[in-house]
Amino acid sequence: xxxxxxxxxxxxAGLASLSGCLGLVGMDEHESSPVGVAASVRDETGYAQxxxxxxxxxxxxxxxxxxxxxxxTNYLTEHEKEVSIGPLVSQRAAVFIxxxxxxxxIAGRNVNPVEDMTTEELIELVEENYDDISNISxxxxxxxxxxxxxxxxxxxxxxxxxxxxxFTVDVHVSEAVETEDDDLLVTIGVxxxxxxxxxxxxxxxxxxxxxxxxxTNDDGDDEGTGDESDENENDESGDxxxxxxxxxxxxxxxxxxxxxxTLE
Length: 264
What we know:
Elements: H1 3-12, H2 15-24, E1 29-31, E2 36-37, H3 39-45, E3 48-61, E4 68-85, E5 88-102, E6 105-106, E7 109-110, H4 119-129, E8 133-146, E9 149-162, E10 165-178, E11 183-192, H5 196-208, E12 210-211, H6 227-233, H7 242-245, H8 247-254
Helix pairs in contact: 1-4, 3-5
């Protein structure tokens, strides 16, 4: 199972139970807008924006001829950084993800359950769906500003397997905040715990540096990401833009690279 499928589940949570109500009021399609990290913050922290994927969740509601499809489109913007630790040398083992999911209003209230999910509930979705991440425990809670809104940020530690090697990782999760497009934004950062001294500060900077003003054609040519950055600069005729617009292709290749890699 790939990480986009699991994290997409945040936007799908509760959809089955809500879809009947949505169908009754004719709300059959909902779509969020992608957000990411400001380019200056990516440069400072060494993270590259590697993919922007649309995650479409569909649910059939009704019976017989009265059925209709409810569609919710979420966006996942992924950032990765090459790090070296133990047997891993220059591997994309540090990952930061921004997920937006649309608010869905009925009778003046939002019915997307992501709005009220705690960081513990959000991290449980990851633990339930990833075979290679387990033994998650909460270490600390703090307040952080994301897109100008104060929200809770929690740090968890967990056991993870990457490229056949076992590591203890830190997982940072922020509770949902509202974007300027009235969507909900959740951020998740993961890195090997031995790198906490440098990467915790970076993850907090990435959370603070969220912006809706992102280049949807940016597929990882950021500077400050080691050898990969240099290779991208020398190959300007590469796949700029195409992977971002067709996130499934780009993400499938990159899923093998991070701590939360491709899991079956």
